[in-house]
Hints:
Number of helices: 9
Subcellular location: Secreted, Extracellular space
Family: Belongs to the lysyl oxidase family.
Shape: globular
Domain SRCR: 52-153, 170-283, 304-404, 414-522
Structural class: mainly beta
Protein name: Lysyl oxidase homolog
Amino acid sequence: MEKSKRRLQLAFSLLFGLWLPCCLTQTTPSNSATTTATPSTSPQAQTERLKVRLAGYPRKHNEGRVELFYKGEWGTICDDDFSLSNANVLCRQLGFVSATGWTHSAKYGKGQGKIWLDNVLCNGGEKSIELCKSRGWGNSDCTHDEDAGVVCKDERIPGFVDSNNRVEEVRLRPIVAMAKKRLPVTEGVVEVKHKDGWAQICDVGWTIKNTRVVCGMLGFPHERKVNKNFYKLSLERQKNHFHIHSVACTGTEVHLAACPMEFSKPNATSSCEGGMAAVVSCMPGPLFMQNSGLKKKLKTSSNVRLKGGARLGEGRVEVLKDSEWGTVCDDRWNLQSASVVCRELGFGSAKEALTGGRMGQGMGPIYMNEVKCVGLEKSIWNCPFKNTTSEDCQHMEDAAVRCNIPYMGLENTIRLTGGRTRYEGRVELLSSDSNGTQSWGLICGESWSTPEAMVACRQLGLGYANQGLQETWYWDSSNVTEMVMSGVKCTGNEMSLSQCQHHKTVNCQKAAAKFSAGVICSETASDLVLNASLVQETVYIEDRPLHMLYCAAEEDCLSKSAAKANWPYGHRRLLRFSSQIHNIGRADFKPKAGRHSWVWHACHGHYHSMNIFTHYDLLNANGTKVAEGHKASFCLEDTDCQESVSKRYECANFGDQGITVGCWDLYRHDIDCQWIDITDVKPGNYIMQVSSSKQRRGLRNTPDS
């Protein structure tokens, strides 16, 4: 999908006054990161005592789904009889002073594997959850829909020692001078965050499998062999502190912390006999090759994509089969399968494997269920999976991913100023003059629209573009006045505004600061999809008398030649069809114009907005538009909804207009303006294109991957 619009194209043949639909194509523009703790006083106790961690999404570091490591397997706790006393015990085990709350019904997503405990009853003073009353280990009648979670007070217990050593953060420290100036960093010494500094890993026994895991964590799909001799002399001159030894990854892990390894004793300085600091080299995906200095480019999959995500490397997983895109069911969806998708698309391993339609619900078929990747496959199509039936899965179970992507530093060259929240404001860019002096400047608001706002919000890391604004006089709180960019034209796919087309020399007719570009970003967005099949099934031709088209003429729903017609005599030839718009996103869709600006139309007998909501175009074989129509947001309402979703919008009695998530708006073929005026079109073969307006709010900015 292009970011600026959703399109539906249908091909028609106009022969002897008859239109025949001949073909149809649609072009559309958990194992989560965890916090683990095992309070212990000895290495022996570490292997014997219970491990507890927080997992799931979305969450902060002090909250999440509770998972227990028992008998070599991670599992969850059922929410039956769960209480704040239980949460207090668990939070203290995790090193927090107390709990502030607990959650039920898998608020942080459904876990996997065993449900270890059920009907847990703590008095609040126990030192471990295993000392509380319960039905016993592994004895539960719950499903993972009932997984319990906790919210801990963000204050650590003084002197708390987490004996379960773990690697939380990894980076590459470049050694070569040129590499230090280039992002992303693809080669260098592996360093892990340790206490207040960074420590190295001894490379004795280091394998290419370890390198694969590190590269995946840093956002790279593939690893490369590195010339150790090139680095040996340089590293021998440095004083290194080796914190980790004997790393033994299998290559399927998504984080170095999941690999077996040995840790140096606390406060001890460990050497690396017969080795040196581990050095790795990674191969970036195509999107990140430009500044990497590498000539060989990797190819990414053309039959897998991510849709619905606000940020690069995240979205609902969609796969292509028989020229039609479909989704993947979330049954048994895990980090290994998610990582295969991420690497296939040119990203690193998966940060999160999301379930429950968290990135919006797809349309069309669900092709895969119970995907079981090992983690080494080149494509999700190489993994074992089950074909789905309508009884197995629904789109509310669509699987999604969040992938690791390389650090590019793009957010450091853009900022918002003057807004009421961090999600809105005037866009300012950091630029350098001929002397290398850096300063902040403005973007000319001329031609600035939603696609440009999409890129700005993505570069800022603030999610979707709600609006792109050409004037920002009401955000005039900055002393920045110089325009540094103009003529910006983005497709919506770019990672930064610098990748968009723009004038080489700034040329802005309205150069005052109040005419600079601004954005309103949002973490959620609506996602509107046209039901293609319904258009095909309901299309027909009608010759409608002019005396029945006065309302349509008033609302500009006829071609220009209608103004020269001999009213009320004669007729117009109309291509009519029904239109059903589904909101499968994560936020309600509302017309851009509020009720205060709606207009009363006596023809229809109610108020409505005249903002154009959808364009209907007829194109010839060369793509030239030969006829057009449009749908204004006359009456956007919840005609019907999915099961368990309540209607919120209706047009009657001056009601609010919009489309609720999980609902759809139906414009029947017999409603005024639900047509294209083809009176002046000659017989022939044509393509019908339906596209949402570029200026509408809630436009989904999903990068095609």
